Amino acid sequence: MKEQGKMLCQQIQRIDLEVSCTFTNHVMFHDRYGIKQQELFHVLVAFSAYDTEVGYCEGMSHIAAILLMHLNEEDAFWALVQLMTNRRHNMHGFYIPGSPKLHRLQSFHEQLLRTMLPQLQKHLVSETSTHLLPGGPGSRQVGGQGNPKTLLPR
After folding, report:
1. What is the pLDDT of residues 45-100, one digit of tens each?
2. Which residue windows does the record flag with biased composition (Gly residues) (predicted)?
3. Which fold has domain 2-95?
4. Residue 102 contacts by C-beta under 8 Å, 6 or more apart in sequence?
């Protein structure tokens, strides 16, 4: 139980930090600890407790914020659950550790480039930018709980 508490505390700190950086120029989210930032925080904390395999990962705050622009807090939570778990959307695979769905899409994209646009694919390889997703050459990963964030070279 102590370990779960520590993990939840770390996630709450990460969520609070992410909420403060999410759509800060949007009228609904520009006030620190304003109504919509509080709702966003609540949705993300509730989701991290609901789906412990995913917990909270960077980028989820933007998805939840867009939902909150159109839905109330509870409906936004359930919409996020559907996006993550429903077979039709199945975003779960992007956010679980190892990001298997992301890697499948990356492989598919690379295969598609090799087949349909071989010159572009060769150029991207020569520029070492074909693997800009997590773990590929030309990318750096930033630590933290959950999935690492990849920084792309400029």
Report:
1. 999 989 888 888 888 999 999 999 999 999 999 999 999 988 888 887 778 778 78
2. 135-146
3. Helicase, Ruva Protein; domain 3 (1.10.8)
4. 93, 94, 133, 134
Instruction: Indicate the burial class of 69 (C-beta count within 10 angstroms; 0-12, 13-18, 19 or more).
Output: middle
Whether 101 contacts 93, CB under 8 Å: yes
Q: What is the pTM of this model?
A: 0.68
Q: SS3 of 54, please?
A: coil
Tens-digit pLDDT profile for residues 116-142: 999 988 888 888 654 454 444 444 333
Cα–Cα distance list, 39 to 5, 45, 76, 142 (Å): 22, 10, 9, 27
Beta-sheet strands, E only, within the chain: 140-142, 149-151
Measure the CA–CA gap between 149 and 53, rounded to whole angstroms: 17
**Calpha distance 154→150 (Å, rounded):** 13
Q: Residue ranges per domain, the chain?
A: 2-95, 100-140
The pLDDT, as a whole number, for residue 125 is: 82
